[in-house]
Amino acid sequence: MLLAIDVGNTNTVIGIFEGNTGLGFWRIRTVEDATADEYWMMLRNIAAMSSVDPSRISGIIIACVVPTLIGALEDMCTHFLELRPLFVGPGIKSGMPIRYDNPREVGADRIVNAVAAYEKYHCELIAVDFGTATTFDYINEAGEYEGGAIAPGVKIAAEALFHEASKLFRVELVAPQRVIAKDTASAIQSGIIFGYASLVDGILLRMFEELGSRPKVIATGGLARVITSETKFVDEIEDNLTMDGLRILYERNKPSRKA
User: Fold this and answer.
1) Which CATH number covers residue 166?
2) HEC states along 43-110?
3) Is 109 a catalytic site residue?
4) pLDDT at 254
5) Residue 45 lies in a domain
6) Total of domains in the chain
7) What is the crossing angle of helices 108-121 and 241-252, to 10°?
8) pLDDT tens string 164-193
9) Is the whole-model pTM more than 0.70?
10) Which entry of 37, 53, 101, 109 is annotated as an active-site residue?
């Protein structure tokens, strides 16, 4: 079995695979000072809920954009599972040429999404990830990562609004019935949901014009379904795109990883 961990700035997603089949995926809050013991307790609880024996885990791959957690994650894997984890980063064999000016600047999560999306669709595409940041990544028809755009994430923008505007309050992030709202809660929902849908469509349209083509658009991330329900150009939603990318990368870099 394969343990896949994607550590984002806001959430951490944990997945367990048997071959190509995902046995379960869990999203938890990222805690920047979590310890190896805490990660092990979380993993044990997850394994118990899904009737998985942790001793059957034979491989681990981790994508982490929070440097302070790398040590704790590695300690958890080596101490409790007796396995050396594979970290997504410079030097990993992605099977995808990176046409960035400085390839080391590309976040691990963006590469993972790009690899998974191209592996599944094998065409020119744009992957949009609604995470802590909203990222747009373009992969050409030959399967080369060309670059993209990064915008503040939906939740970051919403929290900034609530924090800086003292009379405004947190609302559920769902689309209201009307753009022109008649109450404050709906007005905030309108601005956030319809505003971000327009941001997504606007950036995608500019990409289409710059490319002179219309790539397939794949969306993923925690708020993908909420935002893309109001967009025009998203073709597919892949809830587990990052997890699938981690599985693929592990298969491409699969030496013995005993600690």
Assistant:
1) 3.30.420.40
2) HHHHHHHCCCCHHHCCEEEEEECCHHHHHHHHHHHHHHCCECCEECCCCCCCCCCECCCCHHHCCHHH
3) yes
4) 81
5) yes
6) 2
7) 90
8) 887 788 888 899 999 999 999 999 999 999
9) yes
10) 109
Residue 105 domain-assigned (yes or no): no
- Alpha-carbon distance of 199 to 228, in angstroms, equals 11
Q: Residue 54 belongs to what domain range?
A: 2-87
Burial class of residue 129 (count of CB atoms within 10 Å of its CB; 0-12, 13-18, 19+): buried
Q: Which amino acid is at 199?
A: L
Element (H, E) at 119: helix 108-121
Residue 111 lies in a domain: no
Cα–Cα distances (Å) from 229 to 14, 103, 196, in that order, read: 26, 33, 11
d(CA 117, CA 105): 20
Residues belonging to the chain: 259
pLDDT at 258: 56
Residue 251 forms part of a structural domain: no
State residue 150's pLDDT score. Answer: 96
Name beta bridge partners: 62: 5, 87
- Given a contact cutoff of 8 angstroms between Cβ atoms, the answer to whether 200 and 134 are in contact is yes
Cα–Cα distance, 246 to 184 (Å, whole number): 42
| Ranges of residues in the chain whose predicted pLDDT is under 50 | none
Same domain, 135 and 217: yes
Q: What SS3 string covers 223-247?
A: CHHHHHCCCCCCCEECCCHHHHHHH
The predicted pLDDT at position 92 comes to 87
Same domain for 162 and 82, yes or no, is: no
